[in-house]
Amino acid sequence: MPLRRRFTPEARTDVHRCLVCEIREHSVCNGIDDTELAILAQASKRLTLPPGTAMIEEGTPALSFFNVTSGTVKLFKSLPDGRRQITGFADVGHFLGLTTAKTYSFGAETVDTVQVCRFLRPQLETLLTDYPQFERRLLDEVTDELAEAQEQMLLLGRKTARERVASFLLNRMIPPAPAGQGKTEGCLVSLPMTRVDIADYLGLTIETVSRTISALRREQTITGTDNHGIRVLSVTRLRDLASGQDSR
Amino acid sequence: MPLRRRFTPEARTDVHRCLVCEIREHSVCNGIDDTELAILAQASKRLTLPPGTAMIEEGTPALSFFNVTSGTVKLFKSLPDGRRQITGFADVGHFLGLTTAKTYSFGAETVDTVQVCRFLRPQLETLLTDYPQFERRLLDEVTDELAEAQEQMLLLGRKTARERVASFLLNRMIPPAPAGQGKTEGCLVSLPMTRVDIADYLGLTIETVSRTISALRREQTITGTDNHGIRVLSVTRLRDLASGQDSR
DNA sequence: AGCTGTCGTTGATTTATATCAACAATAACC
DNA sequence: GGTTATTGTTGATATAAATCAACGACAGCT
């Protein structure tokens, strides 16, 4: 059973911040040994950002690397005429801002109140060269991101609106408490973002997203009147929908 | 000026294979020092594969990692009913087969005759831990792949058929010889894949791809009757089309 | 509490692209 | 070298999702 650490919400740069960090084991920071955590704390700065904060502007010099410790950040790319594609949501434990280029090729904006640890580029570089385990962990993390990106390409290129929404709800489902129950019913879905964000993530319009969610509600696959908190009634059914096994 | 090395097409496992490899500097192998190349050659095996060879089967145990030294490989994901999304084409210098999971989440098939160097998982692991520069190079490579994947998500989620085809042709354009000429006219595009592959990469049907290419030909943006060799007449125009700046 | 703006839903209509269909061109093969 | 299969093109029609439009439900503010 993992040790439960107290999470300190205040922005602190002290040596103990990382030692005490609740989400460390779920992030790249886990690549650094417990005895070296002071160095990690010194290399980074904890920030608290209000909803709607532009963390990264497309085309801007790539100076920072962030690790999300709470909240959700949306990553996106835009076309000159304003069309936007959200390429992912970075939740707790996920990083953002990694690039080999001089400038960012994407934007990032907080969805809700977000806490991040910010690393400046040179400091990140130092960590990568000094701590092979940290670099390995980051490589694994990026490799997983790439696999997720490929899954999303399948969604955007080949799935119907119904399949897209079902896949999305499935991906954002809070893993049900492993209380040994065979059937996973009534799973919660975390939706801190707006319909516009969901549409821009799924390559649809807000109207189509809204209609599709309404349809799923109508046919009892999901429930919940609250827009940001949906409950899945049949995970099996949703899974079938997501992969194109539509029984209707 | 980079030293021009002789490329040996025969499948050899000898110590000098990597030393003599023409494309080394364009791949992850460049992360290994010249003096250590014998180890790299021993860790990998050179294979020549005919067109249409299934290199990776979705869901199969992830045992190998490949580095492409010639030809083009298509990477894809499929839905149960056969719908397919090609997530990328791995050309010379690109790797494939990287994953943190036990099994591959994607498939891979050769487009034309392909030469690869195959690394078995344990051997790759060893290289990664023993040669930090190799790992760094791979991290950079994966980071770039992720940026490309995000660009492709923008294409699949938000671009029109015209914009998708224009973007594709632009991406596959052979970089024009830097002969100092101001205007880059008549650039060649490398299209070893079929229309089906292009359609599955762009999230379109073969008919739409065909029609769009015909339209671009009709309006003098491109030429070439040969299906696998197109010539771009106006790179500027194509670039405008790709980003939605359609002047028509 | 009442106003104001944002966010979400639902309905009517349009449209870009898919689908269906036929044929042309190229490549593969005996 | 002519036949067959594969690959690509073009046209007609259907359709899923976009667009246009109106309204409902909140959340924030004074």
Secondary structure elements and pairings:
Two copies of one chain form a homodimer.
Chain A: H1 37-43, E1 44-49, E2 54-56, E3 64-70, E4 73-78, E5 84-90, E6 95-96, E7 107-110, E8 114-120, H2 121-130, H3 132-158, H4 161-171, E9 187-190, H5 195-202, H6 206-218, E10 222-223, E11 229-232, H7 235-242
Antiparallel strand pairs in A: 1-8, 2-7, 3-6, 3-8, 4-5, 4-7, 9-11, 10-11
Helix pairs in contact in A: 2-3, 4-7, 5-6
Chain A binds a DNA duplex (30 and 30 nucleotides) through helix 6.
Keywords (chains A, B): DNA-binding, Transcription, Transcription regulation
Pfam family, one (chains A, B): HTH_Crp_2
InterPro entries (chains A, B): cNMP-bd_dom, cNMP-bd_dom_sf, Env_Response_Regulators, HTH_CRP, RmlC-like_jellyroll, Tscrpt_reg_HTH_Crp-type_CS, WH-like_DNA-bd_sf, WH_DNA-bd_sf
Summarize the structure.
The structure is a homodimer of 248-residue chains. Chain A is of the alpha+beta class and 248 residues long. The first copy, chain A, has seven helices and eleven strands.
Question: Describe it for me?
Answer:
Two copies of one chain form a homodimer. The first copy, chain A, is α+β, with helices and mostly antiparallel strands. The first copy, chain A, has two domains: 24-156, Jelly Rolls (Sandwich); 160-242, Arc Repressor Mutant, subunit A (Orthogonal Bundle), CATH 1.10.10.10. Helix content of chain A is 34%, strand content 21%. In chain A, strands 1-8-3-6 form a four-stranded antiparallel β-sheet. Chain A has a four-stranded antiparallel β-sheet with strand order 2-7-4-5. In chain A, strand 10 (222-223) and strand 11 form a beta hairpin. In chain A, helix 2 packs across helix 3, helix 4 (161-171) packs across helix 7 and helix 5 (195-202) packs across helix 6 (206-218). At the A-B interface, strand 4, strand 5 and helix 3 of A face strand 4, strand 5 and helix 3 of B. Chain A binds a DNA duplex (30 and 30 nucleotides) through helix 6. Chains A, B: Pfam families: cNMP_binding (PF00027), HTH_Crp_2 (PF13545). Chains A, B: Keywords: DNA-binding, Transcription, Transcription regulation.
